[in-house]
Amino acid sequence: MKRPVVLTPQTEQDLETIYDWYEQRSKGLGSEFIRIIDANLAQIQRYPEAHPVVRKDIHRKIIRRFPYALFYIIAETQIVIIACLHLKQDPQQQSRLQ
Length: 98
Hints:
Largest sheet: 5 strands, mixed
CATH architecture: 2-Layer Sandwich
Number of helices: 2
Radius of gyration: 13 Å
């Protein structure tokens, strides 16, 4: 049975901020970003163990076409997406990844 994928409130805020930034740059680009994120969330749900552990029990799924990664924890009953971060940010400095 597939575990549901749950986004933390901070992750939802991350995605909204990124969406807005891309939409300001080019109409429709924010929507394309969200479409790609949705496809990646589905892939994480299907194959949660396929992506490397980068810190403790935190997995990282790099997003193609956009310089971001989804960070998630596989819990017993769900998959929790804890952050969507730009790849140039130092994830070690992000308190929610600790």
